[in-house]
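Give me structure tokens for this 304-residue protein.
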Amino acid sequence: MARTPFHGSGADVAGLAAALSEEVDAEVRFDAGSRGAYSTDGPAYQSLLVLGYDDICTAADDVPRPLEHCAPGQLEALDGRMAQLMREERAYLESLDALPEDDSWLMLQFFGDSRDAVDEQAHALLGAIGRSERDRTVTFSDDPKREQRMPKAREAGLGVTARPPHDRETWEGWEDSAVPPERLGDYLRDLRKLFGEFDYDRPSLYGHFGQGCVHTRIPFELRTAEGVAGFRRFVGRAADLVSSSSGGSGAAPRNPTRPIRAPCCCGPTPSAPTSTPRSPSRPCAFWRPPGSALPCPPGRCAAA
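Here you go.
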């Protein structure tokens, strides 16, 4: 690793330079989807299978089923809320028109060394899950131009959900939460209930569902003290949802009995870390590493 200069009062420049000059020996491995999506020498052929569902939670419930029967290079999802925003903003309409009927979709992309190979993967999956290419809720394509159009609806997420034309501005803040794919549907239902409890309207839910990863932007009120306190409480509650689903936000699954946030330890003397979850009467959502006994920064504790 190259040495990085650092300038600052009282900095241990020599120590920092020594730490940064440590060599790192690592091997990077790509799965089939990453090779197909990012490498310059990936598989020469692709096919795209899109399955329609009446709700994003129902689509999430179904994620384990295709994964039992195949290993798609990518398994992505988008919901009807994003489709609605695209129509309101008149963005990517050609991509939307290429999707099958219904309100939410799973997109499975297959890679291979021949057209027959990628077609066979998609058709075998349809047979295994009891669907047909002729169903109104199914779209299949091995035509490169058509394949390039359909995923653009999924890729449009950030642009169309950031500033909805007739709704409140949305923000990151609970982006890339992740749970095991088999728990994804229940997690999304609980997350939607939490949106309603905090009056956060109906944020779009989409993402890399094959990995249990969810993207969303939420209309947090970050311009008032009350709104920021609400944001902190939401993050704490949402973290509890992820933890109870045996997952971690952007991390490997965790033990659901172990809190992913240290309990609130504000006061004259920081309390020792314990495994007891924070008291509902002192809801502090300030983030610390698990096991930390650090108090919240002055004026930033929701429990104060």
